Every structure is written in C-alpha cells, then in structure tokens.
Amino acid sequence: MGSFEVTGGLTMAGYWRHGTRRGVFSIRPSNGRWAVFFEDENLGTYHSPESALDDLVGGHTFWPSDGFDPSEVGLPDELSEWEFVPPR
Predict the structure, then answer these.
(1) Does residue 8 sit within a domain?
(2) Which domain holds residue 63?
(3) What's the Cα-to-Cα distance from 50 to each of 1, 4, 82, rounded to whole Å?
C-alpha cells in the first residue's frame, strides 16, 4: 500500500490514481477520511482507502455528473494495481 510521512507534526499521505477511457479516478486523503474522485468531482468519503475502493468498484459511490456507472469501467479492485502518488 502507500506510505505516510510525518512533517512538522502533521501526517501527510499520498494518494492513488487510475486512468480509464472515461478519465482519471483517484482516492485521496480529505479531512481525516479518504475521498473518491473522478477527475475533480468528489464521489464520496470513507474511513479507509480500501473501503473507498471497495465501494467504487462495487458501484456504491455517487456517480459522476455525466451519469456513467464507475463500476462498469474496469477499475482494478486492488490498490496495489493503482498508481501511488507520494506526498510532495
């Protein structure tokens, strides 16, 4: 899974991203939780990146505003198959 880094007493986390024919999905830290994004559109927040991914690939997140079902674009169901973007 990804790594975490402590800087100045704050925990900074990287995030995961995966490109599809429709656009880029990502799972990013957000206010102590993990948010699922399609491009810049928030599709829901979760207590862990794994639960965010489970709901995303299972079709249990909000859908992007253009109305397609994210569970039908062939997203990998393991975070290890997504690109991890380390904290800057």
Answers:
(1) no
(2) 14-85
(3) 10, 15, 12
pTM: 0.84
Residue range 2-54, pLDDT digits in tens: 544 433 334 458 999 999 999 999 999 999 999 999 999 999 999 999 999 99
User: Under a CB-based contact definition with an 8 Å cutoff, are residues 22 and 65 in contact?
Assistant: no
**Residue 19 lies inside a defined structural domain of this protein:** yes
Q: How far apart are the first and last CA of the chain?
A: 17
| Separation CA 23–CA 13 (nearest Å) | 23
The answer to the question of residue 6 being in a domain is no
Residue 5, domain member (yes or no): no
User: What total number of domains does the chain contain?
Assistant: 1
